[in-house]
Amino acid sequence: xxxxxxxxxxxxxxxxxxxxxxxxxxxxxxxxxxxxxxxxxxxxxxxxxxxxxxxxxxxxxxxxxxxxxxxxxxxxxxxxxxxxxxxxxxxxxxxxxxxxxxxxxxxxxxxxxxxxxxxxxxxxxxxxxxxxxxxxxxxxxxxxxxxxxxxxxxxxxxxxxxxxxxxxxxxxxxxxxxxxxxxxxxxxxxxxxxxxxxxxxxxxxxxxxxxxxxxxxxxxxxxxx
Length: 225
Prior knowledge:
Mean pLDDT: 95
CATH topology of the largest domain: 2-enoyl-CoA Hydratase, Chain A, domain 1
Strand content: 5-15%
Largest sheet: 4 strands, parallel
CATH superfamily of the largest domain: 2-enoyl-CoA Hydratase, Chain A, domain 1
Number of helices: 9
Helix content: 40-55%
Shape: globular
Number of domains: 2
Distance between the termini: 47 Å
Number of strands: 7
């Protein structure tokens, strides 16, 4: 992964047609993603790529935010994003998988939050979903040891919705996409937006959000009839 790749991902999100309902993120080859190209942190850098931003640069925050934009669109309520993870998902690649709503992984999958071992923090929007999924104590342990999590443990930690043999990945992804597309589009989008609020809401707030979402959905159906 390089800045060019992150900017490319952000462009895909920005240019996604409105009628797209499901996005599948998958690596080419035997691994999902090996993570950041470590040449970014050398004096030579990555040929053809912009230089790694310096924290002394007044544009440092904006640069990192532009990298993060390659990840944040995958949480858009108008789509359901699926990470189809085979083999390694390391560092920035692990964070990309975490940015997706759902993860189908193969039985050879391996996750690792490598950044702290490299003297960095995970800064590609992965820390919140990791804590939301596995809890704070486990997230601390995974990040600060930078250890590798295999497919079985990933399933136990709820980092994957489904674990399948490598040969079954295509079929499992296709089945999930078909099931997601069978749901009413407006209801699906409204429900995803509603669920995304739930963790930060009290019961009373979420109940009110449900009422408001239902009223908006039904009103739109009536006006469109």
